[in-house]
Amino acid sequence: MKKLDGIIKKHQQKKGSLIGLLQDITEELGYLPEKTLEEVSEKLRVPLSHLYGLATFYASFRLEPMGKHHCSICVGTACHVRGASRVVEAVERELDIKAGETTPDGKFTVETVNCLGACALGPLIVIDDEYYGNMDGGKAIKLLKKYED
Ligand code: FES
Questions:
Q1: How far apart are CA 65 and CA 11, in angstroms?
Q2: Any idea what DSSP says for residue 102?
Q3: For residue range 110-123, what is the model confidence (pLDDT) as tens digits?
Q4: Does residue 122's CB lie within 6 angstroms of at least one atom of ligand 1?
């Protein structure tokens, strides 16, 4: 990838700019592919394990591509007390994945988040930037069906 060379060059001179470099790659590709991390490791002579350490420590980095639809389920305090964990369970069961994963067909990536800033609407799900409040397990499953095609 030609752009990768440009990104590496941009960060090569600066000490301690590995996070910035990983951010730039994420911005470009949407995630951090294994092959790309190997290339960065070789070109910058940085241990691959160090790159993986950074990529897994910071929640903003992903090692897998995002699904077509991004589903965030709020598990912050206000949503939690109103049953957010049952919403998470229902979604995980329906899609047969765990929060943090993408379905094998690439349709959904599900994540839990701590507060989406609309606590009065909780339990809350955001799919592709659309907010859906007062969720329960059944409503969440119906909602996912809307996004299945
Ligand atoms: S706790 Fe869920 S939106 Fe704030």
A1: 23
A2: B
A3: 999 999 999 999 99
A4: yes
Helices 18-29 and 48-57 sit at what angle, rounded to 10 degrees? Answer: 70
Q: What is the DSSP letter of 98?
A: -
Residue with tokens 């799900």: 125
pLDDT digits (tens, 9 = 90+) for 132-145: 999 999 999 999 99
Strands (E), the chain: 69-74, 108-113, 125-127, 130-132
Atom of ligand 1 at shortest distance to CA of 123?
2
> Among 79, 113, 132, 135, which is best to mutate for testing ligand 1, by the most ligand atoms less than 8 A from CB?
79
d(CA 75, CA 112): 6
